[in-house]
Structures are given as structure tokens and as C-alpha cells.
Amino acid sequence: MSRTHSLTLRAILRHVLLIAGAAIMLAPFIWMISTASKPQTEVFSSELHLIPHHFALAENLREAFAKANLLRFLLNGVIVTISIFVLQIMVALPAAYALAKLRFVGRQTLFALVLFGILIPPQATAIPVFLLLHKVGLLDSYAALVLPFTISVFGIFLMRQFFKTVPDDLVDAARMDGISEFGIVWRVMLPAAIPAVTAFGIFSVVAHWNDYFWPLIVLNSEQLRTPPLAVAHFRNNEAGTSYGPLMAAAMVIIAPLVIAFLFAQRRFIEGITLTGIK
Amino acid sequence: MSDGSMTIDAAIVPAAAARRPLPAHGSRRAYAAYALVTPAAALMLVMLLGPLAGVIALSFTDYQLGAPHFSWIGLANYQDLFADKVFWTALRNTLTYVVVVVPGAVIAGLAIALLIQSGTSLRSLYRTIYFLPVMATLIAMAVVWEFMLHPQFGLVNGLLRGAGLPAFAWLQDRNTALYALCAIGIWQAVGFNMVLFLAGLVSIPKQLYEAAEIDGASSGWARFRLVTWPMLGPVTTFVVVISGIRSFQVFDTVHVLTKGGPSKSTEVLIHTMYTEGFEFFRSGYAAAITVVFLVFVLALTLIKSRLADRGVHYT
Fold first, then answer.
1. Does the distance separating the beta carbons of B54 and A123 come in below 8 Å?
2. What's the ipTM?
3. Tens digit of each residue's pLDDT (9 = 90 or more) over B97-113
4. If DSSP codes are grouped into helix, strand and coil, which group holds residue B145?
């Protein structure tokens, strides 16, 4: 009896500790929603209260959308992340297939370079890539945001590992049917690799939706801003005056990924922890 | 295959091909292979390997964006760098950030993973909550944190005052600003580490715990010390290195919240590199900072791969 007693006590302690930690983790989100729902007068009051006396979320959202072209920035985010992902797959999948299933001179060298490339942090190549884009006159464009990321050595590595597990018989059967090597990549390997492509897709989209460093470097024009840049500019322009609309804008920017995450948690956690292998 | 045998292979290939003619479809397949890898190889050269060599070369020049010409100046950039107080401040702040965030995020991540795994109820709910900060755009959440840390109207000082404790001007005070950024860094990284630890915990065989219990390890602490901790060793080292590399790259929160201030107290390496390279356009000098940054990050990566060589695997 004392054993079950201590067991329930342990279970209670577990929940108490985890809920306390969860409160800290969630505090910024709660504070964000709370502030986004408060009118100006309540935001600037030293008395702490989470639930607004007067509910002003709609007003703050309207002001946020009026002060910044948030829809355009969200659209930019979608255009850039989707373009990057599609191009990454178009470049990486054929290379990964060749590295996994075909024999050719230089394969080992290429694979060694892929492994080496994974070690290079993105900040390391920023200056030369910036100078290159400047030289060819592509700065401050969608191309500047997308082109440097079309090559994902990590994607090549990941897909190559996955393709290694696809049976050779499947490839041979496709060849018997007269499908070209190019056709095999898209009609045989891609369908077989959907789980790996999905995980990589989530990893890629999350990384580039949230990226701040590169858009900050290459962009000038307001209409090309990606969501993180938009929030940073909103904050600088308002300089501590209208926190309600600022928090509403922050909410809008994080909403797409957070909602997607809540609907497909397992896939997202799988996809993002891929960076762990990186 | 080692590098040596590879070059030999490459050298004898024409001869081998002549001796043993490949069937027609075989050589067609080799052509197909080159066609398939060419886009990737070309982009890798232009966007990754070329720029990497470029940044190293650039660090030995006085190139400035827009300047008509430049010259090789040897190690002058590095001499300037090592004589610059700002660089040493940035390096010290970066190391402080790493030394605070890595243990914080690793220990908290492990503790949360252990707590979640020690019971069966609400596991996935807790996992979701703790993982949420990893998903949320850091720039947006940094702006939220800034308001939470607001000296007058922020939640943090409000709670401190409520508890009768002294309040701080967190991000505006040179004594607290870096630590406030560390707290945001830990908050953001904990969930990621937790997920890696959870995966590690799941892979520990149940029989080990049963065996430990038979040997008299009945308390939770004894089981942790005798089974969990040693079995988790590889994952732990891995998480430490990953957290270290990520902390070294800290930039977003610094740039949007403090710009390295007040009085350089939050200046970090990548922020110095950004300011020199993309605000003052002193490309050569910024390249030298990048090389220093690379040395640190590659050293950490090397530790990781050395561990991997010793049979430490993580998936």
C-alpha cells in the first residue's frame, strides 16, 4: 500500500515539475497573445494582468495589417521557402540517386565533398556569395534569397542514405521496362522516398521560413521582405510605442508554422531533429 | 576506400576500360550518372566550396566592396584583428554565451526528457509544449521577450516586484544584457535537446534496468547513475557538441534586440562579422573574422566526428 502511495506521490511530483517548466516555456506565447489582446492603455500599466479588461485583439490585428503589408510578407515567405525546397529536391535527388545506385569515376570524391560540405556553417560562405550576387547584379531579389540554398549537401546525403536502402531489383525492373535513368529518379525513387522527402521538406521549410541572417544581408526593398525581416522592421519603426500591434504581428508571423506543427507534431519533430544528424 | 587508392583508380580507369569494354548500356549509364550529378556538383562548387576557399583567400586581402582594386596584404587583417579590443570583447562574449547556454540547455533538456519518460500520462502533450519554442520564428519571439523584459511594463519585472525582489533593466544594462540573451537562447534550445534525449532514452534496453534492480539498485538515483547516464553518454556528448556549434552562431537575438550593446557587452563574433562585412563593407577584414569563427566551429565538429569514429552513433 505504501508503494502505491509513493507511486502516486511521484506521479504528482512529475506533473508539478513538468507543469512548472511548461509555464516558463509557454510564458512568452501567453504574454504575446495577452498583449496582442490589450488596448494601449492596458499595455502601459504597471499592474500585471493576463486577461485584458477590454478585449482589443481585432483592433491590434487591424493596426498591424495597416502599418505593415503582412500579407505580402507572408506570401514572400511562402514563395521563397517553397522555391528553395522544390529546387533543392530537383538538384539533390538525381545526385543522390547517382551516388547511391550508379558507378562512375569520381563518385567517391563527390561523396567526400558532400560530407565535407555538411560541416560548413552557412555564415562562413556569406561574404563571397554576397560578392558573387553583387557581381552578377542579383542582390535584392527573390533569386538572391533562393539561389544560394538550391544546393543542399545535407539533402543529398540524406537522400543518398535513403536510396541505399531501396532494393536494386526495383531499379533493374524499371530499366527492363525501358525507363531511362532520369525517369527512374522521378518515377521510381521519388515515390519510394516520400517519407524522407517529407522530413527533409519540413526541415528545409522551417529553417528558411525562420531564417533572418541571409535575407537581412541581401534585401533592401520593402516589398521583398520575408516574415522575420518584417517583424524586425516593425519593431524598429514602432520603437517601443505600440506593443499591442507588434505582438499581433508576431502572432501572425509564427502562426503558420506553429499551427502546422500542432497538426503534425510527430512529422515536424522528426523533420527538425534531422538537424541533429547534420 | 582511401584517398590513395582512389587516385590510383582514377589513373588506371582508361586502361581498364580498354581492357574490359563495358557493355553499351553500362557506359550509357555512366554518362547518365554524370548528367545526374552535374547540377549538384556545379552548384556545390559555386555556392559552397568556391565561397569557402574565397573567404579564406579574401582574409589575406584589403578588398572592400566597391573599391576599384585590392591587394594581397598577407596577415595584416589578422594582425589588426588581434590588436582590436572589439574582437576580443566579441570572442569573450561569444565564449561566455556558449559556456552558459550549452550546460543550461543540455541539463534542462535532459531533466525534462527524464521527467517525461518517468511516467506514462500526458507524454505527448508535454513534448509538444516544450518543443514549441523550437518551431516559433526566433525573431518574432525575441521581440516578445524584449517586451517581457521591459523594465517598467514587462512580465519579468512585474513578477519580481510582486515577490518583493529588485527589478532590472535587463537588456539595457551592460551587466545583465548578455545573460538575458543567454536565457532566450536556453529557452529556445531546450526542446530540441529534449527530443534528442527522449530518443536516446527509448533506445535503452529494459533488461538493463531489471538487472540493476536485481543487483540492488532500487532507488531512482541509483538506476540513473548505473544505467541511464552511462547508456546516454554518446547522446549526451553529441547534444553538447551540437549545442556548442549552434551557440557559436548566435546572431538573431543580438542583432534585433541589442545590436551588440550596451557598450559592446553583447557583441558576438558573427555580429562583428556582419557589421564589418555588410555595414562597413570591409570584406577582407570580415573574412578574417569568419576564418576565426570557422576554426572554432570546425574544431567542435572535429570532436563530434572523432566521437563518431569511436562507435558513437546517433540517429
1. no
2. 0.88
3. 999 999 999 999 999 99
4. helix
